[in-house]
Q: What sequence folds into this?
C-alpha cells in the first residue's frame, strides 16, 4: 500500500511538472520572457546608436576645422575666371599663355606665339559664360609639352580644345635644320557665375 501511494505521488508530481512546463512554454515564455529578451536587445541597439552618435559629435569640431581649411585652400585656387567681363577674362587668358611660353622658353628661343585672338562667346552658354582664345604656337616638342602642362594644371582651371599639331622643319643656324611643332588650339575658361548673378540683381527692378 505504501509503495502504491509513493508511485501515485511520483506520478502526480510528474504530471504536475509536465503541466507546469506546458504552461511555461505556451504562456509564460512567449508572453513574458521573449518580450523581455526583445526589449533587452532593443535597448542594447539603442545604446550602440547613442555611442556612435556621441563619437560623431565628438569629431564635429575637427570636421568643421578641416572643412574650413579646405574652403580656404579652394578660395586661394579658384576654378573660375575671376574677371568681371569676358573682355578682361580674354586678356587674362592671353597673359596666362604668354607667361607659360616665357617659362617654357625664356627669350622665346624655342617657342613663340604666332597669333592669339579672342573668340566670340557661344550663343547657348547657359549659366556659365565660356571665354575662349584662339592661339597658334611654333615650339620645340619639350617646350610645347611644358606649355600645355602649365596651362591645364594651373589655377584658375583652363581647358585646351580643338588641338591641332603639325610637324615642321626650320633652319636654326646657317647650314643646319631642325624640327618643331606648329600647334593651334583654343584656350578656354569659365567666368565665375556668382559675380554675374549679383550684377544682374543690381539692375533688376
A:
Amino acid at each position: 500500500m505504501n509503495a502504491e501511494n509513493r508511485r501515485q505521488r511520483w506520478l502526480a508530481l510528474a504530471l504536475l511538472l509536465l503541466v507546469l512546463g506546458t504552461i511555461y512554454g505556451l504562456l509564460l515564455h512567449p508572453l513574458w520572457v521573449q518580450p523581455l529578451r526583445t526589449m533587452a536587445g532593443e535597448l542594447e541597439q539603442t545604446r550602440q546608436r547613442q555611442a556612435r552618435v556621441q563619437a560623431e559629435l565628438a569629431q564635429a569640431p575637427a570636421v568643421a576645422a578641416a572643412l574650413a581649411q579646405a574652403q580656404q585652400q579652394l578660395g586661394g585656387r579658384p576654378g573660375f575666371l575671376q574677371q568681371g567681363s569676358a573682355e578682361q577674362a580674354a586678356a587674362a587668358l592671353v597673359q596666362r599663355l604668354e607667361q607659360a611660353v616665357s617659362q617654357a622658353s625664356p627669350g622665346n628661343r624655342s617657342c613663340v606665339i604666332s597669333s592669339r585672338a579672342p573668340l566670340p562667346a557661344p550663343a547657348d552658354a547657359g549659366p556659365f559664360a565660356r571665354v575662349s582664345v584662339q592661339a597658334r604656337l611654333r615650339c620645340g616638342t619639350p617646350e610645347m609639352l611644358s606649355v600645355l602642362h602649365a596651362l591645364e594644371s594651373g589655377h584658375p582651371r583652363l581647358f585646351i580644345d580643338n588641338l591641332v599639331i603639325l610637324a615642321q622643319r626650320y633652319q636654326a643656324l646657317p647650314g643646319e635644320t631642325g624640327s618643331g611643332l606648329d600647334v593651334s588650339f583654343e584656350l578656354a575658361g569659365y567666368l565665375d557665375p556668382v559675380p554675374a548673378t549679383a550684377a544682374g540683381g543690381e539692375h533688376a527692378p
